[in-house]
Amino acid sequence: MFDINPGLILWTILTFLAVLVILRFTAWKTLLASLTAREDSIRASLEQAESARQESLRLLEEHRRQRAEAEEQSRHIVTEGRELADHLKAEILEKAQGSARHIIEQAKEEIGREKEKALVQLRDEVAELAVLAAGKILDANLDAAKHRKLVDSAIRDLNKG
Amino acid sequence: MQDSRELEIPFGHISLPQFPPIEIAGITIDISITKHVVFLWLSALILIALALVAARGNSKRRVPHGFGNLMEVFVLFIRDEIVLPNMGASGLRYMPYLLTTFFFILIMNLFGLVPYGSSATGNVSVTGGLAIIAFIMIQVAAIRAQGFGHYLAHLTGGVHWALWPIMIPIEILGLFTKPFALCIRLFANMSGGHIVIVSLIGLIFIFQSYLVAVAPAGFVVGIMFLELFVAFLQAYIFTMLTALFMGLGMKGEEGAEHAKERH
Questions:
Q1: Which ipTM was obtained for this model?
Q2: Which of A23, A32, A33 has the CB atom closest to B48's CB atom?
Q3: Which residues are CB-contacts of B15 (< 8 A; sequence separation ≥ 6)?
Q4: Which one of B46, B58, B84 makes the best mutation probe of the A interface by having the most chain A beta carbons within 10 Å?
Q5: Which of A30, A33, A42, B53 has the most CB atoms around it within 10 Å of its CB?
Q6: Chain CA centroid to CA A87, Å
Q7: pLDDT at residue A58, rounded to an integer
Q8: Of the candidates B2, B44, B56, which has its C-beta nearest A15's C-beta?
Q9: For chain B, which residues make up each domain, given as ranges?
Q10: What residues have CB less than 8 Å from A10, skipping those under 6 apart?
């Protein structure tokens, strides 16, 4: 079992070298090349995926920030608008109340003035009537019968007028 | 298990051609084709065919599939678990050698489990031939990595010159023991399993009883599975140790560089 056969050693070495030379330039070369190429492409894709992920994270962050900013802005605008509206409302209300008060006062004044005027006119008319009635009384002051008649007619006139 | 001049086939055997021995440098070399030479060549042809099929499949598809994928698992394992940890990136140039070693030994080992087959690695001459190539590759890797001067300097072991007469023979002996161990380990492991199987089957013939046959048959099946595992394991160990020894020789350079820096 332990006898060494130099011929077999020679055949082993020759066969091994032949296999080595044949495969070195064909199968091993192709296998190793395709392996390396695939590894490179996988590494490249992984790197690409990682950078894409980073980019998308960055975009998402930016988007979030922008949205928050926009929200803040809109909230601000709404608050501002509400404030302005409140302010305007108060102002308009105040103005309206003011002008209403003014109109009422004016109207009251007008009414007062008209009343005064009417009173003056009435007084004048009453005085005139009194003077007229007095004159008529003085004219017919001759006899009692006539007197009576005169007063009656004057009253009748008064009633009529 | 034994080498022979006949090839056993179902229902008979073939006598293999014999050539007159040739003499080179006083050694008589019998280059006759023996059973193990046939299985050597058969393994070589199968390896070439399988590797080409895998390579064609893998270069055609982006994602390897089927047999190409299986082949790639081994290739990746040899690269990532054997070559890179032991030899570093500069060891990648020896990938074709180590791949050939691994698959060639694996296929030869597996032939021992095939009916009518025989594992050529169960012959000490075949493992010796592989060890001689491993020896040459270890020296080539070391000389290529650290230069011939450093390679020779490494043989002194870095001790005082007075110790050189002792150190240099020891170092040179060390160069030969490593591949020798590779040769014996592979041979012993591959023939050992076969011997166990033959012994177990022999029990049936010793006891000459069908009842006894049940136990050895069960054991043989178990040993067969063990051998299947050992076939892979020994191919791995041979490749792994060759890469380790090559890596040690290549790292001698760094050691020498460090020594120079220190002085």
A1: 0.84
A2: A23
A3: B5, B6
A4: B58
A5: A30
A6: 14
A7: 95
A8: B44
A9: 35-262
A10: B29, B31, B129
